[in-house]
Amino acid sequence: MGMSKYTELYGCVMSYLNAQDWESAYSLVKNGDLQGDGNATAILAEFYLHGVGVPEDVETALELLERAISRGCMEAADKLGSLYLVGEKVPQDDRKGVSYLIKAADMGDPLSMGKLATAYLNGVGVAQDYAKSLEWGQKAAKLGDKNGMEIVAIIYDDGLGVYRDPMQAAHWYRECLQQDPDNTFDMYRLVVCLADPFEDFNLHPDYSMLEEAFSWASKGVEKGDLDCHMMVAWFYETGKVVDQDFSMAYKYFKIAADNGHEMSIELIKRYRRNIFGNYYLPQ
Question: Between 265 and which of 58, 184, 237, 257 could a Cys-Cys bridge form, CB atoms 3.0 to 4.6 Å apart?
Answer without folding.
Answer: 257
